[in-house]
């Protein structure tokens, strides 16, 4: 059974209000209804029209299976090997609650179940109901006795139906290059994972030293996604312990970081000792207009003569000129 009380409203004016169950779906206190996919207990927070993209076609999961077979043959490894290693990076512990975004047809689910030691919760979401429902039919019954609860939703990874800090960890593989807004997709993972929880994200993208090689050019010619670079600039400014590496013969980037919404511990008010003086804050926010360079040099000389830093001397001279020394 889905645990519906953990889902939240995704409408902008509802601040992730918790949802209540109704026979036809989940409803928020403001009346927004998220219907179940007909004939299932899977709540649907977005509804992409069938055929809107390659993942929302009826046979999308089979087409994706073929694409994956090609990947593993090409990069001379096995799906088991790759997924085991990626999921090991999340560092899951027994009983934890993990989110997988863009879960597709659920290929990671058995590995996540194993990594949870037979106890915990997996929330799998995908924007394409055709892919997600393939995952439901492939894994829901198969993993029902595992001790891990599976929860599926059709939702947008850039607007997740979960409260802040709800998960211990989050994982994504294989779809983020195509998100219309990668930074928001990552920000959402950061928002819903509790501080210090691990986030692991991977997708096609050659290591920089391969891009201009013949192999690199061939791969990019084959599929333009291999030209993607790891979207480090899209990480939240609060991200901790960031790591970047590559899998599959250095052709897929993997970003790992720890969630946080707290500013980095940087004290911008530590005074510099020495000639120039000032602090990070004063040097950045306290810059004044340009002055006569001869006057500037005389001020620097005078500061040195008095054994003061330039900033300390300037501040005292300016205060004095305002009559507030
Ligand atoms: C290449 S498949 C990868 C599936 C799966 N992660 C795997 O490793 O087999 C990419 C998936 O990302 C999904 N996707 C793309 N944009 C999404 C979004 N905004 N929110 C959720 N899923 C999305 C697609 O529907 C598709 O199922």
3D architecture notes:
With 325 residues, this protein is of the alpha/beta class. It has two domains: 255 residues, Vaccinia Virus protein VP39 (Rossmann fold, 3-Layer(aba) Sandwich), CATH 3.40.50.150; 45 residues. Helices cover 29% and strands 19% of the residues. The protein has nine helices and ten strands. The strands form two sheets. A seven-stranded mixed sheet has the order 6-5-4-7-8-10-9. The longest helix is centred in the N-terminal third of the chain and has 15 residues. It is elongated, with a radius of gyration of 26 Å. The termini are far apart.
Task: Label this structure with key terms.
single chain, 325 residues, alpha/beta, Rossmann fold, 2 domains, seven-stranded mixed beta sheet, three-stranded antiparallel beta sheet, 9 helices, 29% helix, 19% strand, binds S-adenosylmethionine
Secondary structure layout:
Blueprint: E1 20-22, E2 25-27, E3 33-35, H1 60-74, H2 79-88, E4 97-101, H3 109-115, E5 120-126, H4 129-139, E6 148-154, E7 167-173, H5 182-192, E8 193-204, H6 214-222, E9 240-247, E10 252-258, H7 280-285, H8 293-305, H9 310-321
Parallel strand pairs: 4-5, 4-7, 5-6, 7-8
Antiparallel strand pairs: 1-2, 2-3, 8-10, 9-10
Helix pairs in contact: 8-9
The structure holds S-adenosylmethionine (SAM).
S-adenosylmethionine (SAM) binds next to loops.
């Amino acid at each position: 059974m889905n645990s519906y009380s953990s889902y939240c409203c995704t409408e902008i004016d509802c601040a992730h209000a918790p949802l209540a169950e109704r026979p036809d779906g989940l409803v928020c206190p403001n009346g927004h209804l998220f219907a179940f996919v007909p004939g299932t207990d899977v709540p649907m927070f977005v509804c992409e029209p069938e055929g809107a993209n390659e993942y929302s076609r009826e046979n999308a999961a089979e087409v994706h299976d073929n694409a994956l077979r090609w990947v593993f043959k090409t990069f001379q490894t096995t799906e088991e090997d790759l997924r085991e290693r990626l999921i090991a990076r999340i560092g899951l512990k027994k009983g934890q609650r993990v989110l997988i975004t863009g879960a597709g047809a659920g290929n990671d689910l058995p590995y996540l179940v194993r990594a949870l030691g037979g106890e915990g919760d997996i929330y799998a979401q995908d924007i394409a109901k055709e892919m997600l429902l393939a995952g439901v039919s492939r894994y829901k019954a198969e993993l029902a006795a595992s001790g891990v609860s599976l929860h599926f939703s059709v939702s947008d990874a850039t607007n997740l139906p979960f409260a802040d800090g709800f998960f211990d960890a989050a994982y994504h593989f294989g779809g983020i290059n195509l998100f219309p807004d990668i930074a928001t997709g990552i920000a959402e993972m950061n928002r819903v994972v509790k501080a210090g929880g691990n986030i692991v994200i991977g997708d096609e993208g050659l290591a920089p030293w391969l891009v201009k090689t013949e192999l690199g050019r061939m791969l990019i010619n084959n599929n333009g996604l291999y030209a993607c670079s790891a979207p480090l600039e899209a990480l939240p400014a609060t991200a901790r312990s960031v790591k970047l590496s590559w899998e599959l013969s250095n052709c897929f980037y993997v970003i790992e970081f720890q969630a946080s919404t707290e500013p980095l511990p940087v004290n911008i008010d530590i005074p510099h000792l020495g000639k120039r003086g000032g602090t990070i804050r004063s040097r950045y926010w306290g810059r004044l207009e340009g002055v006569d360079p001869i006057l500037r040099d005389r001020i620097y000389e005078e500061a040195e003569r008095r054994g003061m830093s330039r900033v300390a001397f300037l501040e005292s001279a300016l205060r004095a000129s305002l009559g507030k020394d």
